[in-house]
Amino acid sequence: MVRKTVDGDVCVMTLARPARRNALDSAALRELERAVAEASEPVLYLRGEGSAFCAGADLEEVRALDADAASEFAALGQRVANALETYDGAVVAGVDGAARGGGVELALACDIRVATPEATFAETGVKLGLFGAWGGTTRLPRVVGEGEALDLALSGRTVDAEAALRMGLVSRVTDDPRAVADELAAVDGAALRAIKRRLRDDTDQQTGDEREREAFAALVTALES
Q1: Which stretch is the leader sequence (predicted)?
Q2: Which residues contact 77 (CB under 8 A, 6 or more apart)?
Q3: pLDDT in tens, 15-63
Q4: Which are the contacts of 150, defined by CB distance < 8 A and separation ≥ 6?
Q5: What is the pTM of this model?
Q6: Cα separation, 129 vs 136, whole angstroms
Q7: Which of 9, 90, 164, 166 could pair with 185 as two cysteines, CB 3.0-4.6 Å apart?
Q8: Domains of the chain by residue range
């Protein structure tokens, strides 16, 4: 259900369950978690096979869960999203077609979200009496702001690629999202990793400044060697 291929400095991870619009059950989430943990390339590119990026959680499994199992399922999805967010390299989501619920949450965990003109996004959980529990309630307002996050999550409305671009949900709209991953793979891998670590560092300003100086000095030393 998750296919991994390596092309130079790009690790391509494909959600390969097109008959279910790449909806993720527990087995698929574990496969994705394992694939991310085993990857080491400077750039990770996440995509979906077929007409959708990812329809989110597999509702057939979700509807059969009791409270304890539901909590465990949410924790698994959170681990996957956290693994994408903390991957030691750049993570690009190439969204072509529908991203719904958990699919939006996985994209939010990526560093850069790139959409094709055909991409659409929706936090549809509210229409099912649910909500996204793979870290979306914290990442969505951080990415698009509280107002847009509340609008999307409370209404469950669908937005197209251009609307997603305007609100900051995606960084670019292009016919070829994979080209963005290749663009990142062409830069220095050590610098790419160092920049991500610094930008993702949520420590206090003084500690962040110290770590920034240390990382910069290490890169300069590498240039001299």
Answers
A1: none
A2: 24, 29, 57, 102, 105, 133, 134, 135
A3: 999 999 999 999 999 999 999 999 999 999 999 999 999 999 999 998 8
A4: 141
A5: 0.92
A6: 16
A7: 9
A8: 2-182, 188-224
